[in-house]
Amino acid sequence: IKFSTPDVLFDFMSMYPNYLLKEGINAKNYKSWITFRTRIPSLAGGAGRQRALAKAVYALNYYHLAQLNNYMNEYRDKVLSSIISPMVYMVFGLGGGTGSGILFDLSRHLREKLGSGIPIIMLSILPASLDDSLAKGISPYLALQELRYLFNLKLNKDVCEMYDQKYKNPFSLALFIPLQVAVTHTKEGTLIEAKKQIDNAIVEIIRMLSNFDISDLVASIGSSVDLGDSFLNLIGLLKIRFPVDEYVELSNILLREIDLLNTLIGHKVKIVEKALLTTNKIYQELKDHLKRYIFENRLDMDVERYVSEVSKRGGRLEAELSENIKALEVALSEMTETLLMPLKSSAFKEGTIAASYLNKFREVVDYCIKPAANYSKDYTNMVRQYAENLSLGLETVKDFTSRQKIYLTRLISIMSLTRFTVEFLENYLNARYIAEELKIIYSRSNEELSRTADHYINLVTALYKIVFTLIEKPSKEFRTLDQALTSLIMAERVMDSRRRNTWVNIDSLERALAERKTRLEQLENELSRIRFDFTGRRKILRDEIMDLKEEISKLNSELEYYNSIKEHVDELSSAIKEIVDKLELNSDYRKALNELSMLEMEYARKMSEATKSEKYYERVIELTEEERLKILDVILREEEEKLKSSTEILNIINLNRFKDIVKSYIKTFAVPGVLGLKDTYRSDTIWAIVATPILWDKDLEDALRNTLAIYSSVEAGIGVNIRATENIDPWTIEFMIICAKAKPEHLEIYDAIKVNAEQVVDKNMFFSFLLEHGFKAIAVQGEVVERGKDIL
């Protein structure tokens, strides 16, 4: 649309009748409604509710500038060359000035170009309570009055006889969409958001009508039917869908999570096994210290009995082990919640090898991840044996897809993780108890050994924190791993310090030993040179040699002891360093954990979004866990394309639950405001178009008919017409309700429109239809309204 200056428009308006005459319209009573006194706003945002101004600007562009005429010719060529039966929709806001202002002329020209064979359907959006006073006042009020002269057959006939047949109603059908329902139901409750929602609704309406044979609809409530003043057909829209596409995406995210979690479990198994071996070494060293204590103090008991007494003192081992295994079971339950979903979803025909294997697999997994319920002295051996048997048995099952086999193979790792963790807990508690005992008994007699015992308490406790952090749910592990790792790093530093001290002691002992060996050699040489001993030197040398040998023997014993400690400390330091390296910030483990945490957040975000809809007319049915697992099974079977088939849908969906939900949503149509109507509305014609693939039956049809019966002035079986049509999306069911033959007075917003219209004194710029004939066109209740007179 072009509009260079007001002067161009003023000049054109003087020539307007000449253009009309070329079309065969004689506007003998024409008088321009655009003068130099007319206030013309910036047209960037429309005509400012001034319907008469919009009509003039349209005429300028159609006749004088010819742009719209050319565009419409191009449009005509495309429509007429369409390979499918075309339908033309004219969409406009009833409360605006531009759409309702150019509506009559645009539709007239379009009908002339397209001919009578192509349906032209009017889609008009009614104003809402948040609109300004003009948009919900004089503009829609006069538009409704003027529309009577199209859709009231008698009035339209009078207009055609008085002015020309070109003013015959060009529309095949008129449909109205209430904006107020979008304002009420949108989350923001703003006009801008509501209009965005209506834009989406218009797309849905056009799509549904395009997939529906509208011939019966047009025959029932179209422009050829004498509707009188009951020409408004109000549309209510409802879309109910299962978010299957979203859940397929979620399932794929879930499978990526499971792949990462399985990768992490592989690392976890190695780390926990290393922690187990490390704790076992510490346990053995502490037992050696305890054995020495028993020997030094000549106690009448063996070390195993002493260890047993220390561990079971006051029943603490049984109580603390039981408490830890219960905590382990809770942690395993949380960690494997996601991991086990594919196992729950997999289904094979009973009696097959695959079904038998899966049943056994589920039974074993259930046994393994419930250590508190199944714990005994043979528990870890049983878990190991089960894992070996399942690994061997998996190769014999031919019905699994490669994806299922990979998943089941990795799932066996959780059994190893459980076994190593239980064994670690047993060793950890025993090692800690002995270390605490040694710390006490050597607190005064051997400060170094007491410090060593204290260090081992801290070390096994740090390993315990690491192990329990690793079996937590990944999201929790992500938050707490650094804290647990810090404790282990501190223990590692103490171990390094002990390692350095051991090296210092060994170096000192080796130097002392070398000195004494040199001295011994000197003394032995001197002794060998004595032939005759008159001074007693030989005896002195022999005594000194004997003392040196005794001292060397002690030094060798100490050196042997520190060398054994060095070897032990080196092994422990290496093991701890290996664990720390596997868990440090840039390790593969941490990268996988970070990625998994991001996926978990993405999954949670998409899950919350999956069951939400920003569209006022849309309802999303949340899938049950059973339904989600069935979808996951289809994906694991690598048969995702089957999710579009009716057979698979019926296998997945709980139909009774679905029907109950649909019935509850259908009841929303029992509220007149949802359709933009007052509760006084009654009609003998209600249309319901239901777009559904397979999920529709007589029970649901009866529920819909009974709901709409409250608007029917005749028997529901006669007045309510329900037509089912196919839907492209098999997981969606859509309802388009058309409450036909309503009068303007039946509109929920009508009273506000009328009150606001009465406040406008100068109404001249809000007319449109037949303005070219001198304002003597709008007849109300049989009277002709002269220019300047009020039609209210």
Let me know the average pLDDT.
89
Alpha-carbon distance between the two ends: 33 Å
Number of DSSP helices? Answer: 28
Compute the number of strand runs. Answer: 10
Unreliable spans are 776-792
- The helix content is 55-70%
Which class do the helix and strand fractions yield? alpha/beta
Q: Indicate the radius of gyration in whole angstroms.
A: 45 Å
**Tally of separate domains:** 3
* Principal-axis shape: elongated
Major sheet: order of its strands? 5-4-8-6-7
What composes the largest sheet?
5 strands, mixed
Please indicate the percent range of residues in DSSP E strands (runs of 2 or more): 5-15%
List the topology elements.
Blueprint: H1 6-22, H2 51-64, H3 67-80, E1 88-93, H4 98-114, E2 120-126, H5 138-151, H6 153-162, E3 173-178, H7 180-185, H8 191-210, H9 215-221, E4 232-241, H10 244-296, H11 303-312, H12 316-339, H13 341-345, H14 353-368, H15 371-374, H16 379-394, H17 402-411, H18 413-441, H19 447-470, H20 474-529, H21 537-583, H22 588-610, E5 618-620, H23 625-636, H24 646-652, H25 655-666, E6 686-691, H26 698-708, H27 716-719, E7 720-725, E8 732-742, H28 750-758, E9 779-780, E10 783-784
Parallel strand pairs: 1-2, 2-3, 4-5, 6-7
Antiparallel strand pairs: 4-8, 6-8, 9-10
Helix pairs in contact: 1-2, 2-3, 2-4, 5-6, 5-28, 10-11, 10-18, 10-19, 10-21, 10-22, 10-23, 12-18, 14-16, 16-18, 18-19, 19-20, 20-21, 25-26
